[in-house]
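Ticket #4471: structure export looks truncated?
Reporter: QA, pipeline team
Priority: medium

Steps to reproduce: submit the single chain below to the structure queue and open the exported record.
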Amino acid sequence: MKPLGKEVFNPLDKTSLAESIRDHLLKRPVVQLPPDRFMGAGIYAIYYTGEFPAYRKIVKTAPSNEKAIPIYVGKAVPPGSRKGGYGLGADPADVLHRRLSEHASSIQEARNLELDDFQCRYLLVDDIWIPLGESLLIETFKPVWNMLVDGFGHHDQGKARRGQKKSAWDTLHPGRPWAEKVEQPNDKSAEQITKDIIAWLGG
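Actual output as written to the record:
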């Protein structure tokens, strides 16, 4: 019989599991982006410490602090997961490192960002728990590049993306060669996106 007015803790509850994954990630050391090569799949958080005006609010939080606000969080899953399967038991190789390296390349190509201003922390996670961990990270921190400035995680898809609108990220941080070929401008200018970010972060 349940005690009146009290919830019974279930360690296998999805929220409890997600919180465990998140908390383990936030205890990991902060390293420069990209880190040295390693093997495995999992989740990660990227932090910004530079002087781009729109991000001043998150720069004030030290990345080494577990409560620091990441600018972006994400996941890298084993082969097969993106094709509708779970990828369970698949060899992940260096999928997480490659994802972080791709992000580093995007930042290097942006004309108004410096790679030295970015750090990350990452956690190797068993296949099935990776999406759960990423979802709670997004819900907890609401990172600006996940929630508001879309496009950072996009890849070059050749002609398939040329007729689409330019992403908010590529509008604000131009420089990726393939994104320069996207034909339609974003609905918002870089100035409007900047104002949205400042309002989103609370001034």
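Status: closed, not a bug. The export was complete when the record was re-opened. Leaving a note from the reviewer for reference: The first strand starts at residue 31 and ends at 32.
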